[in-house]
Amino acid sequence: RLCQSFPASLAIYEDQVQNALVSQLDQQINSTASKVEMPIIEGCFIGLTSSISAFGLQNNEDRKVKIYHALLKCCVRPMNDSVRRTSFRAALGLFIEHANLFLSNLLDPVEAQHWYETLRTWSLSSNSDDRKIGWKAMTMFLKTIGNAFSSESDLCSSSKNTFTYLVGIFTQTLKNPKATSQECTIAVLGYSNLASAAARFMSSSDVSMMLSQLISKSAEVFLADTESFKTSKIKNEVLVYLPNYVNGIIIVFSYVK
Q1: Which of 90, 153, 195, 254 has the CB geometry, 3.0–4.6 Å to 42, for a possible disulfide?
Q2: Is 0.85 topped by the overall pTM?
């Protein structure tokens, strides 16, 4: 983290530092050895996160490609809960801080599906540390894509397919009576961030339907009148997500014509 603390003093070394970190990361990621040095990978991700924050990536396309490929491999949550996951969380930390660097990848329909499914796994994990960083990464993923649709300048010809895929997933989730509160909240965040794109790509009646879904789901989740809901800890757990629903309704409503 020295790069962020003393950027002026270390600026002359920025290229060497980033090159060394990327080279070591690439070497470890693509190693054919039976045991990969995960602490080294973790250190590389942490170092790159700080270095890029302090100096940027200096338009080095080859370096960016290597970092992105490393993220693709290391942001996938291990299925075995006994595996130490600090290096994987470090990869997510870089993604959270610098997702916008990889915007062209995130807007690709295939890549967007990969990232959504990957981050969803983290966000819904029973492990509190995994879930916490998963929520941050999912929020940043949706925010980054949403901002791109708002600015329009970063869109490519296939971006609409990415929008269609994500909105379809969120709509299915909100319609699913068996969806958990966490799953529904991800869908609400998705609607919030994609509202401007919905106004551009969908009919006004479809945008109104999105608003109707949000209001209906909010009533279903927060106005449950059963005694078990009123007296159980479930109510307190669910109320944590209320601001997301309120914000989602406000944002989508602003695009209703």
Answers
A1: 90
A2: yes
